[in-house]
Design a protein that fits this description.
single chain; alpha+beta; six-stranded antiparallel beta barrel; five-stranded antiparallel β-sheet; 35% strand
């Protein structure tokens, strides 16, 4: 009997031990769950930025160069306003005596046009007819001036002999050629040297705006304006911002704008600047439609409420990581495969050897590919395909990204930022290997790390 009781106590003691361990295990995990900081996850979705369209009238700012007359006389132009000239193209002439203009007015001046010349004139008229807008009747006067310049350009004045053949005295007839490729205009308004930093509210009223247009046959004095060039396709529009506008756009780097008169939309660079009067002004910069508005100084446009489309992610989710930046020309493909990598040169006691090393490319742009630092060793010497050019892997670049957790653990994913405000960033939806709609990402990037498991 005593032996049976002793055996029972041993069995009872073993059960208590197992239960105790199980209980302690559960308590530890419960405490870990209670006191461990929870991982906050954000689900990616599409979004647009601003909600309302707003129309502004702005002041056009361009890179313009003004040219003045060297002699007094009658001016004639050989290229229509808004035309693009090449180097050594004749732009205008000064006729000191008036003989050239008398020639133009005579029956023999521009008579006997050839079939090609008539075709050019006919083409100009047909194009104008197709694009004519009754709301822009002033375009008729522009057409008249352009046709006049076209007719003048048909006369050969390329040399002193050609000028003499027209019965003109070359001593009093002067031609001027372009010294660079540019767009030409024959009006001036005093804003040619306008600096955005000097902006004042009165610059935008238009009350005192004066535009002087020169035409064929007009008389100019020496030192007076004769023509100007627009030297770059890049141009800007400066416009006044109300307090609400400044607040709405303060974190934007790009805006989506529409030009109603030509029914065109485009994405433009945007910045806020402070004028000379302390006012806040917006400045949009673009490289489209410059020639279309070359004859204008003030222009109405609409900022669209729908900014570039992409994915909306909190700024707290964005981190940065350093990558090796390698010129894209060094990327090679191994053997008969499409696997990308680099030809790496290695020097040993037996000499130099070159091997192809497959390498994952995290991101690429027009000039560089960006490689994770664990993909290739610092200082590796790589060789450009079909060349003897070499470079050592050392340059780095910091790229933004987020930590994606779709598979239950964190992995860094590069993003392309399109727009940003104080709380959110809009990122491209077309980035190779980038995030996609409904991806799950770390809400707080500073608490994330590659390979980190999600509980």
């Amino acid at each position: 009997m005593a032996a049976r009781n002793k055996k029972r106590r041993k069995k009872l003691s073993f059960g208590i031990i197992v239960f105790s361990f199980t209980f302690i295990y559960l308590v530890i995990h419960i405490l870990m769950y209670v006191f461990t900081e929870k991982t906050s996850i954000y689900e990616v979705g599409r979004v647009t930025s601003f909600d309302a369209d707003k129309t502004f009238t702005g002041l056009i700012v361009r890179d313009e160069t003004v040219y003045t007359a060297e002699y007094q006389g009658l001016v004639n132009y050989y290229l229509g306003a808004g035309g693009k000239t090449a180097v050594d193209d004749v732009i205008y002439s000064i006729d000191e005596t008036g003989e050239f203009n008398d020639l133009l007015s005579s029956e023999t001046g521009v008579s006997g046009l050839g079939s090609e010349q008539l075709a050019v004139i006919t083409g100009d008229l047909a194009l104008f007819s197709m694009n004519y807008n009754s709301n822009s009747f002033s375009d008729v006067y522009t057409l008249k001036s352009d046709i006049s310049s076209r007719l003048v350009s048909f006369l050969d004045i390329s040399s002193e002999e050609a000028v003499a053949a027209l019965g003109l005295d070359a001593r009093y007839f002067h031609t001027y050629k372009s010294d660079a490729s540019a767009v030409v205009e024959y009006y001036h308004d005093g804003y040619e040297d306008f600096d955005a930093a000097s902006a004042r509210a009165e610059d935008f009223s238009g009350d005192s705006y004066q535009k002087t247009l020169l035409k064929n046959g007009m008389r100019v004095d020496a030192g007076e304006f004769v023509y100007k060039t627009i030297n770059s396709e890049q141009w800007s529009i400066l416009f006044r911002l109300e307090d609400a506008d400044a607040e709405a756009y303060k974190d934007s780097k790009r805006l989506n704008v529409r030009f109603d008169d030509i029914d065109a939309e485009t994405i433009v660079l945007f910045e806020e600047i402070t004028g000379a009067d302390g006012g806040i002004y917006g400045k949009i910069t673009l490289t489209k439609y410059m020639i279309r508005y070359a004859d204008s100084r003030f222009l109405a446009f609409t900022v669209l409420g729908e900014a570039p489309k992409g994915y909306k992610i909190p700024n707290t989710a964005i981190a940065a990581r350093d990558y090796y930046a390698i010129p894209v020309d060094y990327v090679a493909k191994g053997g008969n495969t499409q696997t990308e990598g680099f030809f790496v040169a290695t020097v040993s006691t037996s000499g130099e050897s070159v091997s192809f090393e497959p390498t994952g490319i995290a991101y690429r742009d027009d000039n560089y590919v960006y490689i994770n630092k664990d993909e290739i060793a610092l200082g590796s010497v790589i060789i450009m395909p079909d060349s003897e050019e070499r470079c050592a892997v050392s340059a780095t670049a910091s790229l933004p990204g987020v930590y994606r957790v779709n598979q239950g653990y964190a992995s860094f994913c590069i993003i392309e930022e399109l727009d940003k405000n104080s709380e959110y960033t809009i990122v491209s939806s077309t980035t190779a290997k980038g995030i996609t709609e409904y991806d799950r990402i770390f809400l707080s990037a500073e608490k994330a790390a590659d390979g980190q498991k999600i509980y």
